[in-house]
Design goal:
With 381 residues, this protein is α/β, with parallel strands linked by helices. The chain has eleven helices and 17 strands. The chain has two domains: 213 residues, Quinone Oxidoreductase, Chain A, domain 1; 158 residues, Rossmann fold (3-Layer(aba) Sandwich), CATH 3.40.50. 26% of the residues lie in helices and 23% in strands.
Length: 381
């Protein structure tokens, strides 16, 4: 089969790989119809995530058709069109029993922290991802779901991570009716979080970024106020002034490891790899939220040290909430919003690339070229 293959930082190509086969009676093999590139895939592409091995195939957002099932699979049949959450999880361990699918204890040798994630390095279990023609789906009775007939394919694809993660980020922000919420980062997850904050009862939503076309999308998709941090003297002071000197009630970090805004932090993290990620957006969130407020962290960081302002968070009495999204928990409510016409995740999609052009897709997305917000990969194109 043809698949995206990692050859080192900024080096990816499409190569022939062995088609995946059933390795366990509860596996399924899915022929990929649509995949996507996620902002967190760029952390892999840029060499930010440890134990990203040469030869790996990325891609944790994909939908497709079941072409093989193991002998113990009961909930799926050959020919089913399925959407697959990015979490690989068993469904029965201590954590899965409590709905913490992202923290499954049985799918990752490094499971003291994260569970399994498709196409996201051996730190997250070493599973090949869906930027390929075929993908092996373990625990096929637990993760995948048959795509409802009424659900658009691109909406289904966005629910496998970006839309669900943004919605989860707004949940973790513990938004109360009338709250002011600031979202750092106007990528797909940040835009989804900003949109979702309204569903939680927010009275005001602000989005901070430095790319004008992304801020325009925040206004049109999420109906948010926007701030370009390069056009104000101090983003924290600006946000305090915009909230009567108190700060917002909640802040959502939807940027993560490669945040701009500080040359020193960016060099020490993204270039020299001395930190698990640039903490600029997270520190802005800590500084700009009011005392007693909540900071929700959706941006991905590496597992090593980062210079986070924890003392400030402590002294302000903040609640910090974070995790990888437990994707399938979000689907019932998101299905309701989509069926009611309140939400169209596919509006985030700006580009579609054939699998053979995936190197160009990463280049365009990484470089924020051509107004790219969310690129899709079409293996059959």
């Amino acid at each position: 089969m043809r698949a995206m293959v990692y050859r080192g930082p900024y080096k990816i190509r499409v190569e022939e790989k062995k088609r995946p086969s059933l390795e366990h009676p509860n596996d399924a093999i899915v022929k990929v119809a649509l995949a996507a590139i996620c902002g967190s895939d760029l952390h892999l592409y840029h060499g930010m995530m440890p134990d990203t091995r040469v030869g790996s195939t990325f891609g944790h957002e994909f939908i497709g058709t079941v072409v093989e099932v193991g002998t113990s699979v009961q909930n799926l049949s050959v020919g089913d069109r399925v959407m697959v959450p990015f979490n690989v999880y068993c469904g029965s361990c201590y954590f899965c029993a409590r709905g913490l699918f992202a923290n499954c204890h049985n799918v990752n040798p490094n499971a003291t922290a994260v569970g399994g994630i498709y196409g996201y390095s051996h730190t997250c279990g070493g599973y090949d991802g869906g930027q390929a023609e075929y993908v092996r789906v373990p625990f096929a009775d637990v993760g995948p779901a048959v795509i409802p007939d009424w659900l658009d394919d691109e909406d289904a694809l966005l629910l496998t991570d970006a839309m669900s993660t943004g919605y989860f980020g707004a949940q973790l922000a513990d938004v109360s009716e009338g709250d002011a919420v600031v979202v750092f980062g106007a990528g797909p997850v940040g835009l989804a979080a900003a949109k979702s904050a309204w569903f939680m009862g927010a009275g005001r939503v602000l989005v901070v970024d430095h790319v004008d076309y992304r801020l325009e999308k925040a206004r049109s998709f999420a109906h948010a106020e926007t701030v370009n941090f390069t056009q104000v003297d101090d983003i924290v002071v600006h946000l305090k002034r915009a909230t009567a000197g108190l700060g917002t009630d909640a802040a959502i970090d939807a940027v993560g490891a490669e945040a701009d805004g500080s040359f020193l932090q960016h060099v020490t993290s993204a270039k020299l790899k001395l930190q698990g990620g640039s903490p600029v957006a997270l520190n802005w969130a800590i500084d700009s939220v009011r005392k007693g407020g909540t900071v929700s962290v959706m941006g991905a960081y590496g597992p090593m040290f980062s210079a986070v302002k924890f003392g400030d968070a402590f002294n302000k009495g903040l609640t910090l909430r974070m995790n990888q999204c437990h994707v399938k928990r979000q689907w019932p409510r998101l299905f309701e919003h989509i069926r009611a016409g309140y939400l169209k995740p596919r509006e985030l999609v700006t580009h579609r690339f054939p699998l053979e052009h995936i190197a160009e897709a990463y280049h365009v997305f990484s470089g924020k070229l051509d107004g790219c917000i969310k690129p899709l990969i079409v293996p059959g194109a």
